[in-house]
Amino acid sequence: MSENIELKIKLLRDELRKHNYNYYVLDNATISDYEFDLKLKELEKLEAENPQFFDPNSPTQRVGGEITKNFTTVIHKNRMYSLANSYSLEDLNDWENRIKKMVDNENISYSCELKYDGASINLVYENGKLLRAETRGDGFQGDDVTANVKTIKSIPLVLHDKFIDSFEIRGEIIMPLKGFYKMNEERIEEGEDPFSNPRNTASGSLKMQDSAEVAKRPLDCLLYQLIAEELPFETHFEALMGAKKVGFKIPETIAVCNTINEVFEFIKYWDTRRNKLPYETDGVVVKVNSLEQQEELGYTAKSPRWAIAYKFKAEQVSTILNEITYQVGRTGAITPVANLEPVQLAGTIVKRASLHNADQIEKLDIRVGDTVFVEKGGEIIPKIVGVDLTKRSLESKPTKYITNCPDCGTKLVRTEGDAKHYCPNEYGCPTQITGRIQHFISRKAMNIDGLGSETVELLFKEGLIHNYADLYELNESQIIPLERMAEKSAQNIIAGIENSKKIPFEKVLFALGIRFVGETVAKKLAKHFKSIDNLMNASFEELVAVDEIGDKIAESVLRFFDNLTNIQIIDRLKNYGVQLIISEDTLKNQTTKLFGKTIVISGVFSHFSRNDLKKSIEDNGGKVASSISKKTNFVIAGENMGPSKRLKAESLKIPIISEKDYINMIS
Ligand SMILES: NC(=O)c1ccc[n+]([C@@H]2O[C@H](COP(=O)([O-])OP(=O)(O)OC[C@H]3O[C@@H](n4cnc5c(N)ncnc54)[C@H](O)[C@@H]3O)[C@@H](O)[C@H]2O)c1
Ligand SMILES: [Zn+2]
């Protein structure tokens, strides 16, 4: 018997560790938070009943995150904790009873805050300046992500008023919904899969290697705790308001409640209104307001006793699944969509839900006619999380995924490791053809004025264009007779197409619609290879040698240029005068002085910002790496170079040069 329990505990611990890793390190959870919390609760219960199997390393005893190998590790001056959870008013009452006993039945007032859903961050300030930003990691040590955090505009780098000399302030890095939706629209436009939710995206962004990329992500930071050797405040709330005065972003939603009943009111209020906030929240955090009482209460192994999270229930409704339809994307990817009986959810009427791919349908055994549960997380469209099997009719049959393209009838393919089915009829499938042309003319690509998506469809239907090169053969007399067209609009279209011949190479490269080559990648490739001919002749090794170009992108580029139709189209674009070589302007200030050199930078510089220094290295043909290895040619050290980096460079005998040496080197 006890052997069984021991095994059960071990299996649960292993499973939860795996989920922690997926969630915190890979930013890619494979079960819902609800299921995760249930399993954790089950383990807590088993451990409490069987104290002989206690293990300080159990997921019940430890903060779930980890440090990564991509950043300098920092030991937290003050430990970072998780929060105990509660799911009902009863849980909260129990908590109050417990803590009241520990503070001798004194009155307790509470600070109530929303639980912002993102990634925790610790900001270290010395003498009014941001010194370091650290992730929570395992609570004892985290990743030094200062360079990335410095790109978040709402975080003050220098305080505009005198405050405490040395302190830490903690908060949550979040991605507000508006920015999240916009980014996803752009990704879909570029043929990439959209991000799954704002939390993962915020957490993933924080851990990117290139701060210039992080700067493009619309991140924000909401702060919720101040820590110092000695705080000149009596209460947590006053401390936050003090921090607010010197420039920190502290949400307006905080309230002080004098009784637990007032806390309930706060929770009820926000449970129905949180959808109206510009960011996601997943609950309320209730904190003992008096700092003295907080100190008295202290911490358990994993969380403060003076605070508790109340988790909102994910909003869920049930409705009937009327039909499953299939969409074809510009890259041929098929997305199944659930068409639902319209239902009210989180303030909007929901008619459709994403089903992602065939596996998802199979896993949940979703069938037409089913009553399904629909949830709204951070996704653009809601998702189906389960089926109400008690309502399934006896005649119901498992869903058969389509085998052929709903648009052109071609047999679909699915390559190993890819969750999606694709229509391989790249050059014959109408949606793919018009999708590629629509992408080509779009604002961030060739920016062809006067030509819209509908006109592209019309021109295609009339047999006037089959690919984007055909645009350059169009003339006014072909366009004027078309539906809703007149001389003026035809002239505009032709003028817009003519003007697009001036669009610079990096945008043309993006416009070609090579899978995984979005705006940024196109810029990188254009800058590195300088012309389409060089790019076309590049080998896999040459491609992956370019900073931030990985296997997936390299393979996609090779595949694109391996196709005769594409080569012919590019030849035609060349003849029409489209820019397929990088312009003189872009080449200015560029040299090959650092060609083949891998350089690591560390510290703070006076002549360059870190990003400018990176750009300068790249402009001179060098490659910037984030960590020192045998492949590093030299390290440029600024002020306050990280001691671990210095040690590593010295032990590998890698030259360390100053900013001045560098400037001499390139001038
Ligand atoms: N689905 C999965 O596989 C999986 C795996 C691991 C964890 N999880 C989920 O992650 C959560 C557990 O993560 P956790 O241990 O980080 O705990 P938590 O996120 O539930 O609570 C602690 C965190 O809340 C944040 N927070 C937000 N607003 C705050 C405020 N106003 N005051 C104080 N803190 C605030 C802090 O960053 C703090 O670190 C659970 O919801 C769990 O379901 C899911
Ligand atoms: Zn097709």
TrEMBL record:
Query: So where does NAD(+) get bound?
Result: 33-37, 82-83, 113, 136, 172, 287, 311
The Swiss-Prot or TrEMBL record lists the needed cofactor(s) as: Mg(2+); Mn(2+)
Q: Which PROSITE patterns match?
A: BRCT, DNA_LIGASE_N2
List the catalysed reactions.
NAD(+) + (deoxyribonucleotide)n-3'-hydroxyl + 5'-phospho-(deoxyribonucleotide)m = (deoxyribonucleotide)n+m + AMP + beta-nicotinamide D-nucleotide
Entries under Gene3D superfamilies matching the protein:
5' to 3' exonuclease, C-terminal subdomain, 6.20.10.30, BRCT domain, DNA ligase/mRNA capping enzyme, Helix hairpin bin, Nucleic acid-binding proteins
First-tier enzyme category under EC: ligase
Q: Which residues are in coiled coils? A: none
Q: Spell out the molecular function terms from Gene Ontology.
A: DNA binding; DNA ligase (NAD+) activity; metal ion binding
Q: Name one GO biological process term.
A: DNA repair
UniProt keywords, alphabetically: DNA damage, DNA repair, DNA replication, Ligase, Magnesium, Manganese, Metal-binding, NAD, Zinc
Give the similarity note: Belongs to the NAD-dependent DNA ligase family. LigA subfamily.
What name does the UniProt record give this protein? Answer: DNA ligase
Traced from the root, the source organism's taxonomic lineage reads:
Bacteria, Pseudomonadati, Bacteroidota, Flavobacteriia, Flavobacteriales
